[in-house]
């Protein structure tokens, strides 16, 4: 059965550079997992003029943002499409900084089990945060745990 | 993004993943492979030669499919991973669960 079409997404450019490239933009993503792919592509497209190499843009940014959005939609919004996940991106000469905020109660990232210990390796889920941490240069959370901030340095 | 299934002369089902394997399309892959399994196929190769990225949900569906195929006496092999995808499997230690070959042709020949 084919995946149902995702709702349309609207990107808001908040600040542009001298040559018109977006330096700061935001995106409100309905909490529908079918939206993740389109949201990731939209953000990656806007970051093309930024400091990331083609390879890091194609793999690291896309995978890490997909993980952050999936976590926010699944655990923060409990897949209620009426709830929006806010994505805010800042592109500087040195880095791309992505902030993903959900409306959930938050969580303690320190309590997430290590998916690579022998008892967990064959499990079907639980790898998102682990993968994300390995793909970006810095991961921070707000104290509540409903905002994750990903920093990918240039190169 | 799409999944293309073809059956080779040895009866191996080769599934090409075009684009990405992520939370939004993993069910589609799962259903296609399970349909083929129900149709009697036992040998599967997932070909990632044309895949940009795989998220953890995509990894999870591969683990799930591998279990189901093995339960039916079959086997699932992976092929065509680029350097980044190979690293992803190594980081998550999933390279210890899967038989990973360089090309789909090698994966088919190894059955």
Explain what you see.
- Chain A has 155 residues and is of the alpha+beta class.
- Chain A has a single domain (11-153), classed as Heat Shock Protein 90 (2-Layer Sandwich), CATH 3.30.565.
- Helices cover 27% and strands 26% of the residues of chain A.
- Chain A contains three helices and six strands.
- By secondary structure, chain B is of the alpha/beta class.
- Chain B has a single domain (2-102), classed as STAS domain (Transcription Regulator spoIIAA).
- In chain B, a hairpin with a 5-residue loop joins strand 1 (2-7) and strand 2 (13-21).
- In chain B, helix 1 (26-38) packs parallel to helix 2.
- Classes of the chains: A alpha+beta (155), B alpha/beta (111).
- Chain A binds chain B through residues 1-3, 6, 33-37, 40, 55, 58-60, 62-63, 66-67, 70, 115-116, 121-128, 130-131, 134, and chain B through 1, 20, 22-25, 27-28, 31, 52-57, 59-61, 63-64, 67, 84-85, 88, 91-94, 96-97.
């Amino acid at each position: 059965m084919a995946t149902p079409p995702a709702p349309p997404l609207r990107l808001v450019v908040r600040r542009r550079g001298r040559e018109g490239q977006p330096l700061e933009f935001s995106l409100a993503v309905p909490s529908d997992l079918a939206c993740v792919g389109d949201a990731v592509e939209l953000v990656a497209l806007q970051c093309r003029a930024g400091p990331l190499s083609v390879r890091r843009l194609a793999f690291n940014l896309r995978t890490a943002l997909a993980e952050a959005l999936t976590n926010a939609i699944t655990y923060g919004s409990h897949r209620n499409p009426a709830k929006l996940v806010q994505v805010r991106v800042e592109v500087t000469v040195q880095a791309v900084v992505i902030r993903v905020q959900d409306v959930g109660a938050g969580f303690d990232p320190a309590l997430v089990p290590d998916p690579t210990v022998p008892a967990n390796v064959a499990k079907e889920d639980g790898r998102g945060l682990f993968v994300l941490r390995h793909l970006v240069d810095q991961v921070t959370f707000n104290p509540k745990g409903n905002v994750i901030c990903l920093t990918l340095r240039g190169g | 993004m799409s999944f293309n299934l073809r059956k080779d002369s040895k009866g191996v089902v080769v599934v090409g993943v075009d684009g990405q394997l992520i939370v939004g399309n993993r069910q589609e892959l799962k259903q296609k492979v399970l349909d083929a399994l129900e149709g009697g196929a036992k040998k599967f190769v997932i070909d990632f030669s044309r895949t940009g990225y795989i998220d953890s949900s995509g990894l999870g569906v591969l683990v799930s499919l591998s279990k189901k195929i093995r339960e039916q006496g079959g086997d699932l092999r992976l092929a065509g991973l680029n350097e980044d995808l190979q690293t992803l499997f190594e980081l998550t230690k999933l390279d210890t669960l899967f038989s990973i070959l360089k090309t789909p042709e090698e994966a088919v020949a190894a059955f």
